[in-house]
Amino acid sequence: MPKLDSSVEHVVNKVVDPIGVSQIRYFAKKFSKIPGIIKMTLGEPDFNVPEHVKQAAIESIKENDSHYSEQAGIIGLRKAIANYLNVRFDLDYDPESEVVVTIGATEAVYATFAAMINPGDKVIIPTPTFALYIPIIKVLGGIPVQVDTTADGFRLTGKKLTEVIKREGENKVKAVLINYPGNPTGFVYSKEQLEEIVDVVKDKEMFVISDEIYAELIYGKKHTSFAKLLPGKTILINGLSKSHAMTGYRIGYLAGPEGFVKNALKMHAFMVTAPSNPAQYAAQEALENGIDDASEMRTVYQERRDYIVGKLNDLGYETLLPEGAFYTFSKIPAKFGLSSVEFCERLAEEAKLGVTPGMAFGDGGEGYFRMSYASSMEDIKEAMKRLENFTKSLQ
């Protein structure tokens, strides 16, 4: 195994080097080494990909469809995405010029930021939130401005946004990112709450990046896409990882005005050339003939949600009822005197239950822990027993 030559030890991107690894992945890997542990760390659907979707990927391979697709993705899939967005959310995108198929929503986020921000530009990030956004902004030379939303029920209010823009300098803030249904909180913005944000940004020189990857997993209410309210300034991020349990297929997409998307496409092409053909044909099948495939999963997730939230609150872990996604985000009682990392490490070691510390989700996450209920009800019930015993030991 080669050892890094001492003459090149310091030849490194000075921005990338100090950035830590994903804390979500770090703790998931760390806790996986504990024998007999129940892991409720990763946001990984425990359902299989629908059979008709898998068959489409198989047929693509059988047909020797092994050549490069268009860099923006196969046109059939882009048309399916545009149609899906129209049917579900009343959005109007040209599949030829306003949709790009990416390697998961992750790459869509990266391509969007890479096409948007210059060194020194600021992006407002409400926290707690998915940890991916902050390091990407830093790598690109931007400045993530974290806004703690815990006092406002995990939402960015129009008043708070106005205050932050004024403080940071309107000429320096280039975008605000919202993620809903939220990871890790499960919070879902109503149309009225989104309109508060619209009122603030509509006359300013800034974008809204709306990550709506969990849009199909909302319980008992309708999803309003931010792109419907402010289409000319919104970059929409979505994908099939959560809606069709296709995490390993790595198909996401971005949609927005052509004037912006043409540059995001350049960044996408520089990074990955084009997505995998079998995965794209599977995604096309999912959107053309499986638009309601998520309904069964949603019903099961809601049953799990109701059970786990009830148990958490009974045990003294203050937990708001998630309106979407498949996570609970619970407050660690102050009387325990434990940081989120200390609590989660002890829970894993002493009770063999793996959850994610809130510090992994930005400044607003400390003092909380996230549990993914993308697990079987059997595992969830056992997890709650282990958490109950662990809680008694702390008290």
UniProtKB/TrEMBL annotation:
Keywords: Aminotransferase, Pyridoxal phosphate, Transferase
Transmembrane region(s): none
Taxonomic superkingdom: Bacteria
GO molecular function, one term: transaminase activity
Cofactor(s) this protein requires: pyridoxal 5'-phosphate
One matching Pfam family: Aminotran_1_2
Tagged with keyword rRNA-binding: no
EC number per UniProt: 2.6.1.-
Keyword Transferase in annotation: yes
GO biological process: amino acid metabolic process
Domain Aminotransferase class I/classII large: 37-387
Family: Belongs to the class-I pyridoxal-phosphate-dependent aminotransferase family.
PANTHER family per the UniProt record, alphabetical: AMINOTRANSFERASE (PTHR46383:SF4), ASPARTATE AMINOTRANSFERASE (PTHR46383)
UniProt-recorded name of the protein: Aminotransferase
